[in-house]
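Model it.
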Amino acid sequence: MDPLQQHRLAETRRHFFTQGSLGLGTAALASLTGGRSLAGPSDTPAASGGSLATGEVPAYLNKYAPKAKRAIWLFMAGAPCQQDMFDYKPKMEGMFDKDLPESIRNGQRLTTMTSGQKRFPIAPSKFKFEQYGKSGAWISELLPHTAKMADDLCIVRSMHTEAINHDPAITYITTGSQLPGRPSLGAWLSYGLGTLNKDLPSFMVMTPTWSGKQGAQALYNRLWGAGFLPSRLSGVALRRTGDPVLYLSNPDGVSPAARRRMLDRLAEMNQQTLDRLGDPETQTRIAQYEMAFKMQTSMPDLMNITGEPKHVLEMYGPEATKQGTFAASCLLARRMLERDVRFVQIFHRGWDQHGNVAGALPGQCRDIDQPSWALVQDLKERGLLEDTLVIWGGEFGRTVYCQGKLSRENYGRDHHPRCFTIWMAGAGIKPGMVYGATDDFSYNITENPVHIHDLNATILQQLGIDHERLTARFQGRDFRLTDVHGEIIEDILA
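Modeled.
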């Protein structure tokens, strides 16, 4: 085949127009700008996922002084029952099995799980609450370890969202849109800030086991994906069993030196392809091969916890040495954070208690209570909590009215987007604080509402990023994590 014809066949329509427009457009604009550089934010090393060895925030994003170098989100997928854990509503005791007043529900959109119910009977929490810390935070008996660190936490009880079903809601809070296809928070951070280390991914994800109903909502890798950003910015998810990352080991008979030579030659060929076609995913392929080679050494070191002191393992609980558990994931997360992995997410499933709250919720809380406490204390003892932001929470809340059969000892709860609870700690967040309030039914917010875009805007700010400036152009418009919304939650910042 004629080489020119072969090149034309290989070149995509997008590459043709991109190269053609850049050639003519750059020449025209250069004549108007006197030859000044036309590179914008997307051309900086950080924006393209490059390395920032100093950890500095690029000047065009640096409206705020960063308080955090790294962050971890303990994501409770399925929506924890806020009124059984953090949002104490004692007046509901006297309203057991009474109908939720229409003035409270106020025509709220319902899911198909309860929209057909003839009644919406109130189900008070069966669990005991006590006040803890200087803030007097009400915390359930299900979370004894979390209660011990009340003075380390900022508990936000006034979160809200528009999404009412799991997949759109989780996609919304993690990517800023209910529709799939947008970059996740971790990908945005890698895009804007680059990486703090050379031997591990900037964004890592774990999906541990859980104690609740095993038929839990699915998790899709778009929740930690890069969307329309270069795919090398996606989170790297560790497996729960076996090798944490597949295909890192060399095949039998292949030495590290041979592997290095092979990757060098492959990089040269990929670079030629990149120079010829200009497809950014070719650069991703080069970067991923290089990271895989580095992870052959860094990943075994990360996973090897034999050097962890006995008292540290005991702090995380009896499952800390059991691969794939939430406790083991929290311990690994601390090891990642001290190795300067920029962002870690742990997705813990099984919180979708439409029925059998009394049977399922205690086990879920046991999974996460001690390890979450241990993670915060471990970071604090190592001096890492000062510049590590910790976030705990799910995608929405649960209803005060019962779904299904109601008794004093057991009940179910449907989805509730109007209010839910999260907590944050470290990196410039005010400790020992309860922020926001809901009505007596834990149904409507009465004080300091916080939208999920506000939460993401605040997370970005603590990492030194103005959420309005971190944008990427796609299909003719600029996108950002917080879309066209988002206000900094100034009241919770130290």
